[in-house]
Automatic annotation (TrEMBL), chain A:
This is Cysteine-rich domain-containing protein. It comes from Shewanella algidipiscicola. Residues 3-83, 132-224 form the Cysteine-rich domain. InterPro entries: Cys_rich_dom (IPR004017). It comes from the Bacteria.
From TrEMBL, chain B:
Pfam families: Fer4_8, LUD_dom. This is 4Fe-4S ferredoxin. The keyword Repeat applies. Residues 299-320 form the 4Fe-4S ferredoxin-type domain. InterPro entries: 4Fe4S_Fe-S-bd, 4Fe4S_Fe_S_CS, FTHF_cligase-like_sf, Helical_ferredxn, LUD_dom, LutB/LldF, NagB/RpiA_transferase-like. Keywords: 4Fe-4S, Electron transport, Iron, Iron-sulfur, Metal-binding, Repeat, Transport. It comes from the Bacteria. Transmembrane segments: none annotated. It comes from Shewanella algidipiscicola.
UniProtKB/TrEMBL annotation, chain C:
Pfam families: LUD_dom (PF02589). Residues 85-189 form the LUD domain. InterPro entries: FTHF_cligase-like_sf, LUD_dom, NagB/RpiA_transferase-like. The gene is lldG. This is Lactate dehydrogenase. PANTHER family: LACTATE UTILIZATION PROTEIN C (PTHR43682:SF1).
Length: 247, 459, 189
């Protein structure tokens, strides 16, 4: 498939390794990967603060970067940004061209589970990982059934990862409680955010896993800052890095 | 412990609460235990999600036909010998209550839990008119004796430790000094409140559901305090928001199945009492209160907050509430539902930001109130009204322009990455603000992803 | 304009589109309803006596009376040592009340009691301990079924009672016996 990458500003600027792993793993799976030019922020920092006017310019710029791009899917290795892009594109542009872009948007896990499943991994991943099921991915993209919801359960993240030879998947206590990042919440509500992050980092460390693995770079950035401040014996990895290492 | 409803922001109050970390852990754990009990109770019913959907739909149906159901309710109440009063706001509600009590020369009123009367500030109003008001729910009585507001809508004294309750009861009720056994303290409160029930002139309760086609009110308690009150003196009053009415008994059955399960994990409250008229020779009054609810119904998104049945499930699951405490919100009702229904009353405008938009509350809610959507909407309303907190009105336009410009974003982030890489942490800390106060700064990469891609995959 | 009129006026312009009333059709769990009831009654801290019958209950009541306790009964065939008093307040020293329940609910251990069987409405709350008597064929699966069968005529009071009075308001520690009855024993007859 021909895949256009949506690389959110945070990944582009601060976590390029997540983008690189995404490119490499998609290419190993036989896909053609392109990076449409002119990508900016999805507008989430502004719209999540209620500032829609301020978000409009950047959101439309991002949308325009994908309009008319020939591809089978637009894939993003960041669930929260993906959700915000979908919502904000729709908010500011109701044209068929905008809808065509929205219809092609997939978060990486979602893409690998729903659209182009991985037939086999050819390398083992000899570690125990503690899965970070970030909020927007599970509650707005259905990547996993949230713990509040009853009835049949799905977990696309685990479903994708558990096929990797030798991998051991565990979960922290209160496994899908928010890590406390919340965008500007981390700054506005520093003390409460930090307590949430500390609790989450400790819960991951208590599993004895070598890595806390997630699909949302912003949560991982927050967790990483907490883990290093608390000097906990665990590191963060993005799901793309784990998958790439096993291909 | 700070109990004041001052005008400090939620962030400031949360920061103060977080200073005692062991207390935060204790508070968070106690409430999470309720969430776990809720999960077990909900999970035991294969039809749980169906009940949530039914609850949502029947409440939304009622809210969109509210005038019709309120009139039907009033007519049926009157046919059952119940007197119905209408109050446009809290002030009028308090006046109506006082008038009813004054006509009967009531000196002592026993009350069961009602968040509506908290919202209307009824107790101080009646006390200023010489009427003694006794809150009879154990948790409510504890905080009344401690002169504090509730910190949770279902377990109002959840913020107090048993030793603190023991000291309070020793001081106010004469229990043994140092005694803190919950059974001993509860029995002491039972004996104390029995006397109050037996000597009360009137009783007042909140209303969990009002049945339109029967003219009946449903009151749910675990302790039996509402029924001990309403069934002893010959005068009973029930205050309800306009949002409490449901069409019929079948609707009430749906909500009774989810209310207690979602609140505490019990299959149902111990007592679910249906009052369809006063006791023999008694008088029964129902006061229907608006107090801003009709205004919320004029906003499509805010309107859904009125589906709430006040189970408190959203507070228990909220990671922010559990770590900031009930007094960090500038409204009588804390937590996600407090933000949803109280943000317009917050002078600091900070309540809508006391939330990471994680969405757990929305998924917990037994009537599917879209709490995260409503909280997000409140942020937009605050922005539109020029009432942004935390300096956002100054920096958000700058962020908007900055983010929309690739050049600016690339240049400045390149500088930032270099700074993060080459400067020692100690030098960066003062500049990193709220992030670096609690967390290590990110380890900066050498270049952006885009630069890597162009170099390695460029055409 | 009166407050009633102004509220009703304001309600004429609700921002949400009118929604239809849903059809409430929830499948009941019909296997072993009495067993379910027993389990759930225990969950809410009540005790079920499946086989003792009215005879067993009368024997228990006689035993209590012999201990000098005050027992009031409104169940046909069960004799206590107290009559229904003129005022509700005179019930304050009742140790045990024996009351008929109209139906029991398997899913949550609740029993419906109507005020016609109470003497005074406060009886099941003010007594120190409560006995409820329910006919074995009056156990229904869930609240949807129960609500269609309860008696609640105009002017009446009725209550679902699920276990003894309880509270967890002090540090979430469950204490049985807050304001209402401190124990509940249910006799199936």
């Amino acid at each position: 498939m021909k895949i256009a990458l949506f690389i959110p500003c945070l990944v582009n600027q601060m976590m390029p390794h997540v983008g690189i792993a995404t490119v490499e793993l998609l290419e190993k799976l036989g896909h053609q990967v392109i990076l449409p030019k002119g990508q900016t922020c999805c507008g989430q920092p502004m719209t999540n603060s209620g500032c829609f006017d301020e978000a409009k310019k950047t959101t439309l710029k991002l949308l325009n970067a994908f309009k008319g791009v020939e591809c089978d899917a637009i894939v993003c290795p960041a669930a929260s940004c993906l959700v915000a892009a979908k919502e904000n594109f729709h908010e500011f542009d109701t044209s068929p061209e905008a809808q065509a872009v929205i219809n092609k948007l997939y978060e990486l896990t979602e893409f690998l589970h729903d659209v182009a499943p991985i037939s086999a991994f050819n390398k083992p991943f000899n570690h125990k990982i503690s899965l970070q099921l970030s909020c927007h991915g599970i509650r707005m993209l259905d990547l996993a059934t949230p713990s509040e919801q009853m009835g049949p359960r799905t977990n696309k993240v685990e479903a994708v990862l558990k096929a990797i030879p030798n991998i051991e998947i565990v979960y922290p206590g209160r496994h899908d409680e928010c890590c406390g990042f919340g965008g500007t919440f981390a700054i506005d509500e520093g003390a409460v955010s930090a307590k949430m992050g500390k609790d989450k980092a400790q819960a991951h460390a208590e599993t004895g896993a070598k890595y806390a693995v997630g699909f949302d770079p912003s949560c991982l950035l927050h967790l990483d800052g907490m883990i290093r401040r608390q000097q906990l014996p665990i590191e963060t990895l993005h799901i793309a890095q784990v998958i790439n290492a096993a291909l | 412990m700070s109990t004041s409803h001052t005008t400090a922001s939620h962030a400031k109050k949360g920061e103060i609460f977080c200073q005692d970390e062991s207390r935060v852990d204790w508070h968070s754990k106690a409430l999470w235990a309720l969430r776990e009990k809720r999960d077990r109770a909900a999970g035991s019913l294969p039809e749980w999600e169906q009940l949530r959907q039914l609850g949502s739909e029947l409440k939304l149906h009622t809210l969109t036909h509210l005038g019709q159901y309120l009139e039907e309710f009033e007519q049926n109440c009157q046919a059952n010998g119940i007197q119905v009063h209408w109050a446009k706001d809290g002030v009028e509600h308090n006046q109506i209550v006082h008038k009813i009590l004054a006509e009967k020369q009531v000196k002592k009123l026993v009350k069961s839990k009602s968040m509506l009367t908290e919202e209307c500030h009824l107790n101080p109003y009646l006390e200023s008119h010489g009427i003694e008001v006794i809150d009879t729910d154990l948790g409510e009585r504890i905080i009344q004796l401690a002169k504090q507001p509730p910190s949770h809508i279902v377990v109002p004294a959840i913020h107090l430790k048993k030793e603190e309750v023991g000291d309070l009861f020793h001081d106010k009720l004469g229990t043994d000094a140092g005694a803190s056994d919950p059974l001993y303290l509860t029995r002491a409160a039972r004996a104390h409140l029995r006397e109050q029930f037996l000597s009360a002139d009137a009783a007042m309760t909140g209303v969990n559901m009002a049945i339109a086609n029967k003219g009946a009110v449903v009151v749910c308690t675990n302790e039996g305090n509402a029924d001990m009150g309403a069934n002893l003196p010959k005068l009973q009053l029930h205050s309800m928001g306009i949002d409490k009415v449901v069409p019929d008994l079948d609707s009430a059955a749906v909500l009774l199945r989810t209310l207690a399960r979602n609140a505490t994990g019990q299959p149902v409250t111990t007592y679910s009492s249906f009052y369809r008229g006063p006791q023999a020779d008694g008088e029964m009054h129902v006061i229907i209160v608006d107090n801003g609810r009709t205004k919320m119904l004029q906003d499509k998104i805010l309107a859904e907050a009125l589906k709430c049945i006040r189970c408190g499930g959203c507070l228990n699951t909220c990671p922010v509430y559990r770590r900031s405490g009930g007094y960090s919100y500038n409204y009588t009702i804390p937590g996600p539902i407090g933000i949803a229904v109280g943000s317009q009353h917050d002078a600091t405008n900070s309540m809508p930001w006391a939330c990471t938009l994680c969405g757990s509350c929305t998924h917990v809610c037994p009537t599917k109130v879209p709490l995260d959507k409503i909280i997000h909407h409140h942020r937009r309303l605050k922005a539109q009204a020029g009432q942004l907190p935390y300096g956002k009105s100054t920096y958000m336009p700058l962020v908007g322009n900055f983010m929309a410009s690739e050049t600016m974003l690339n240049c400045s982030m390149s500088v930032a990455r270099t700074a993060l890489r080459i400067l020692p942490g100690a030098l960066l800390k003062p500049f990193s603000g709220a992030w670096g106060k609690y967390r290590e700064l990110p380890v900066a990469p050498n270049s952006s992803f885009e630069a890597w891609f162009n170099k390695n995959r460029g055409q | 304009m009166s407050s009633k009129q102004s509220i009703l006026q304001a309600l004429k312009t609700v921002a949400v589109e009118p929604q239809a009333m849903p059809n409430i059709d929830v499948s009941p769990r019909l296997d072993d309803v009495i067993g379910q009831f027993e389990t759930n009654l225990a969950t809410v801290a009540g005790t079920l006596h499946r086989r003792a019958g009215l005879e067993g209950l009368q024997a228990k009541v006689d035993e209590l009376i012999a201990q000098g306790l005050q027992v009031i009964s409104t169940v046909d065939g069960i004799k206590g040592n107290r009559a229904v008093p003129d005022t509700a307040h005179e019930l304050k020293d009742i140790d045990y009340a024996v009351i008929p329940g109209d139906l029991a609910v398997a899913e949550n251990g609740a029993i419906w009691v109507n005020n016609q069987n109470l003497g005074h409405r406060v009886t099941p709350f003010i007594c120190e301990n409560l006995f409820l008597v329910v006919e074995a064929d009056k156990v229904v699966a869930n609240m949807h079924q129960a609500i269609k069968k309860i008696g609640l005529d105009a002017g009446e009071f009725g209550v679902f009672i699920a276990g003894p009075s309880k509270t967890a308001d002090i540090e979430q520690a469950l204490v049985v016996g807050a304001h209402g009855a401190c124990s509940l024993n249910v006799y199936l007859v």
